[in-house]
Design goal:
Helix content is about 30%, strand content about 15%. The protein has about 400 residues and is an alpha+beta fold. The two termini are about 25 Å apart. InterPro entries: Kinase-like_dom_sf (IPR011009), Prot_kinase_dom (IPR000719), Protein_kinase_ATP_BS (IPR017441), Ser/Thr_kinase_AS (IPR008271). Its EC number is 2.7.11.1. It holds the Pfam family Pkinase.
């Protein structure tokens, strides 16, 4: 397990692991020193599962390495920087920049909800990060307050933990018949396995903005079945604190992904709010993104459901006029089918843990960069998310 130097492991002959920063379903995060360059880094050590066969362990390792290498190609000021991917004793390690500061979840737990202007600032940063990732064929799939870091001293917003990301052309960490993610922040089309795409990450952002403004996701419930119902068919009730940003929140929490507010429009509306104090009902001209991204590459078919299931072809993108339709309308046929599926599974006694935890514990693992341990949340943990200390 590496060489010892002053009672500290050194992996790959270069990275000295010094202090454990966090632990979760997807691995352990260490504060470390790159001895070659003399700088601090964060190192994510992926767990060893002795219950896996050698072939399964090798497949999981290969998938993780492919995804980490793909994410390492992303370059955006609000996306964590991956420096290196190494293997030591047949175990992969991901080396990233070290962000001195806690997560958005830490901030909410310690200081309470943020105001509308701060939520808009965070939203703008994350929209830029998501647009850059999507343009490179990467879906994050686990956007939540735990995976958003706020750098101390600069308040830089950093999207981290691509541990369950879907990368175009590469198998994902999802195993046959399982689901990975955080249900309170998961889009209904992904929850039902019908489809996944950039729009699913934007739904997660809508839920995250509500959490930032009120302290919790609008889909938080006391039971897993309650979360499923709230996400798939329940009335969507944005918190009162979301009032100043309500047009954006409503647009992002549109159940039909073809009608959902896209990243460019959402950013323009948030920028208008920060400039004028009012959020327009439709995106104004003249609020172009500050960082232009590469042309979008088409993403591969959804892989959230069991392997071998035929993919659902994407539908045409709607025109801008469709954004003005009522928000809380009747669910589409696709969502109704999803609701029946959820009800059938509940009636059959399907294990909620097996459905929603999957290989990733439903958690997505620890954020691989925060230097401060996570602060316990002030509300009970979601029944869909196992307790992990910490999960930045």
């Amino acid at each position: 397990m590496g060489t010892e130097g002053h009672n500290r492991r050194v992996i790959a002959g270069r990275y000295r692991l010094e202090e454990r920063l966090g632990r979760g379903g997807m691995g352990v995060v260490w504060r470390a020193t790159d001895q070659l360059l003399g700088r601090g880094v964060a190192v994510k050590e992926l767990p060893y599962d002795e219950t896996l066969s050698a072939a399964d362990a090798r497949r999981r390792r290969d998938r993780t390495l492919r995804e980490a290498r793909a994410v390492a190609q992303l370059s955006h000021p609000h996306i964590i920087v991956v420096h290196d991917v190494v293997e030591h004793d047949e175990r992969p390690y991901i080396v990233m920049e070290l962000i001195e500061g806690g997560s958005l979840a830490d901030r909410l737990a310690g200081q309470g909800p943020v105001d509308a202007d701060e939520a808009a600032r965070i939203g703008i940063a994350l929209l830029g990060a998501l647009r850059a990732a999507h343009a490179s064929g990467v879906l994050h799939r686990d956007l939540k307050p735990d995976n958003v870091l706020l750098e101390a001293g600069t308040d830089r917003v950093v999207l981290t933990d691509f541990g369950i990301a879907q990368v175009q052309g590469a198998p994902t960490l999802t195993e046959s018949g399982s689901f990975v993610g955080s249900p309170e922040y998961t889009a209904p089309e992904r929850m039902s396995g019908v489809r996944t795409g950039p729009e699913s990450d934007l739904w997660s952002l809508g839920a995250l903005l509500c959490a930032a403004l009120s302290g919790e996701s609008p889909f938080h419930r006391d039971s897993l079945g309650g979360i499923l119902h709230a996400v798939v068919v329940g009335d969507i009730q944005p918190p009162a604190q979301a009032g100043p940003l309500l047009p954006v929140v409503r647009g992002l929490l549109e159940r039909d992904p073809d009608r959902r507010l896209d990243a460019d429009r959402a950013e323009r509306m948030l920028r208008a709010f920060r400039d004028t104090g009012r959020t327009p009902q439709s995106p104004p001209p003249g609020y172009a993104p500050t960082v232009r991204d590469a042309p979008r590459r088409p993403l591969g078919p959804p892989q959230d459901m069991a392997e071998g299931q035929p993919p659902v072809p994407p539908e045409d993108t709607p025109g801008p006029d469709r954004q003005e339709e009522p928000f809380l309308r009747q669910p589409t046929r696709r969502v109704l089918v999803a609701a029946l599926l959820v009800a059938a599974m509940a009636g059959a006694g399907v294990s909620a843990a097996a459905l929603l935890m999957g290989e990733g514990d439903g958690d997505g693992g620890p954020a691989p960069t925060s230097s401060a341990p996570g602060t316990p949340t002030t509300r009970p943990a979601s029944p869909s998310t196992p307790v992990a200390t910490p999960t930045p």
